[in-house]
């Protein structure tokens, strides 16, 4: 199981995932933080980036915050 500490920037002009020097991940999303749209977009983008099914990705802390703890169960 992989544990990621993610800083999300919703409403960006492009989507990207990059690892910062301190080990955290910066994720830019086009989706706005309305009704869980940004969280859904985060899971979808991480799924493509790490090549795992969306069902293997869980936000365990910070669902309503920009800083999140995400668990990825690797197949």
What would you say about this model in short?
This protein is of the alpha+beta class and 75 residues long.
Strand content: 35-45%
Distance between the termini: 9 Å
Which residue ranges are poorly predicted, with pLDDT under 50 across at least 5 consecutive positions? Answer: none
CATH top level is: Alpha Beta
CATH 4th-level superfamily: YggU-like
Query: Helical amount among residues, as a percent range?
Result: 10-25%
* Rounded mean pLDDT score: 96
> What is the count of DSSP helices, taking H or I runs of 4+ residues?
1
CATH T-level topology: Conserved Hypothetical Protein Mth637, Chain: A
Count every beta strand, where a strand is a DSSP E run of 2 or more residues.
5
| Overall outline | globular
Reading the helices and strands in chain order gives EEEHEE
Strand numbers in spatial order across the main sheet: 2-3-1-5-4
Tell me the structural class: alpha+beta
CA gyration radius, whole angstroms: 11 Å
**What is the architecture at the second tier of CATH?**
2-Layer Sandwich
- Major β-sheet annotation: 5 strands, mixed
Number of domains: 1
